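pasting for ref
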Amino acid sequence: MDAGIAAVLGAVVGSLGTAIAAGVTGFFARSQAKMQIEAQHRQAERQIRADHVGQLREHRRQAYVEFATQAADHLKQLEAASQAFAADPYSEEEALALLPAEQQFTDPAYNSAYARLCMEGPEDVAYVAASIGGALADASGAGLAWALKHRGGTPTDCPDPQGALEAAISTTTTCATAASGTPG
């Protein structure tokens, strides 16, 4: 064989080998790139889901904090009213001014924090919130009964309004303590 033909034939075989090697490499690179894109897509979906869950939890957390803050303020008012009722000399005006409205925690129209918590939170948290609201309303009612007793009236449904107020405050504190351990 002539040296020129052998050189051309060698160049053709070398070119074909290089082309085949490049094709095989390109095929594997393409499948590797496809796998990377799919993995990045799955990661992006996971991140979007995690962000969505985080946003939902943030709204729920804000609803819990808002309700807990209002409940704590209400409880502080009740405790101050209880001390004012128990003070000697007793000042009815001062005690009644410290006593929050009874509907403040039982009617969602009066309490947007309670309504928001019921919408954002699960049923067990809404139940605890309703228990806290009921105990706060009972305490407010007992405070009003205490004021009526001091005026000389005798409410038939509350023979010991001072004890009822203290018991309602204790119940509210117990419910709030239990609620702090409730998962959200």
